[in-house]
What does this fold into?
Amino acid sequence: MRFLEQLGLYIILLKKVFSKPEKAAIYYKQTMHELVFLGFNSVGIISVISFFMGSAITLQTAYNTENPIYPLYLIGLGCRDSIILEFSSTISALILAGKVGSNIASEIGTMRITEQIDALEIMGVNSASYIILPKIIATLIFNPILTLISIIIGIIGGGMAGTMAGVITLQDFIYGIQYAFIPYYITYSIIKTLFFAFIITTVSAFQGYYVNGGSLEVGRASTKAVVHSSILILIFNVILTQLLLS
Amino acid sequence: MIRVKNIDKSFSGKMVLENVSVTFEPGKTNLIIGRSGSGKTVLLKSIVGLHNIDSGEIWFEDVLFNKLNFTEKKEIRKQMGMLFQGSALFDSMTTEQNVRFPLDMFTNQSMEEKIERVNFCLKRVAIINANKLFPAELSGGMKKRVAIARAIALNPKYLFCDEPNSGLDPITAILIDELIKEITDEYSMTTIVNTHDMNSVMEIGEKVVFINEGKICWEGSNNEILKSDNEILNDFVFANALAKQLRSSQL
Ligand SMILES: Nc1ncnc2c1ncn2[C@@H]1O[C@H](COP(=O)(O)OP(=O)(O)OP(=O)(O)O)[C@@H](O)[C@H]1O
Ligand SMILES: [Mg+2]
It folds into this structure.
């Protein structure tokens, strides 16, 4: 019952978000701002995490396949596919749900409790659209770029860790990451990323927009934003994998 | 002129406003007074449509405002300015950007024209050399004044102020009250001010509406308020020791 009520409110909010923008120029400016704020500012964390995850994946693959029957380049191939299929889209999305999601929920929640949203409404501005739409557009544009960055840096990390630990030669690794490469996997990864970006932004914005009360509730909303969007990401990961790869 | 007719407002079953009817006249500072929790903010937000009322009518001139859809409401909202209880300046914008925001959103003026208007409004509320400061860098009284500047940027016909002087020292509070009254007279706006400050009532209360537990309990002007024999009103008006003494010495 409560779930249906929330779902209803979420859909109403989305309808408000996607109604005709007031003034294109202002939305453009806001979107540029959000591209930097929500997108560009996440390049660092995604790069660092991808580098180390790529390294770990390579070493694990290497130690799990210590069998002379398997050619060494399989390590490179395994590393590439885990990163593209699962890590760079799903794990990155979970990390972004933590960083960007809590950020969006607390920013919008604070605007709600300090009556800034009321101030927009009273001026005749569609507050939902003005605040949320630029965030959605910015994450839809930038998160795929983050995913690509994550893939590249993850593979570089894998190659470096593998050669430094002496489990694979650079030649074998490079051969492996090129071997039987399926470009569709990248498309699959990007499609997942787009869904996840939409989930993170709208679910977190929803939590923030309907905050009622004070700063405690803002904190609660930002926790809920992270938990709910993470769960939805994992559920959609299963659904999308079934739809796109079967 | 704003007319409120028989409005009811409840939150999840709890009645906050009950059968409220009142008329606010143009060119006047209309005051809504009452104790904390009596429903002043809810009444003001219902009038401007931030709360949906359960039943009743809200008229702006001869338009039935509460029945309009968002786009139609927008046209009337462009003529409204509102000062919120906590100022509600946009944190991410400077003073100048805050005041410029309604101009950016709803006019096609050039940047020079907009800046000129912004500076005019800021000067009107006596804020100078603060254009580049962010709300976090302003004092409470300055925030209220910047918020007034933002509210009057588009030359509104209606001005709504929720506790414009709460949390301010008595001198600043009176300055803000006088500013609101002057602006109201200057542009013959219809102004509605929520307050629980008796100083404001005596200073600027051309028309005063006393609200108690969600019902209108008394209406009149600041000249009449001290002579009323309404007991609930008297409890409110003569709540502080000084007022009580004054009253007993008069009797
Ligand atoms: N969004 C809301 N949800 C539920 N109840 C609310 C809401 N807003 C206000 N109320 C209730 O309505 C009543 C009137 O509140 P209101 O904010 O109008 O008081 P007020 O007269 O403005 O008080 P103050 O002088 O302290 O600002 C209170 O009992 C409050 O609990
Ligand atoms: Mg109030």
In short: Chain A has a mean pLDDT of 94. Chain A is about 85% helix and 0% strand.
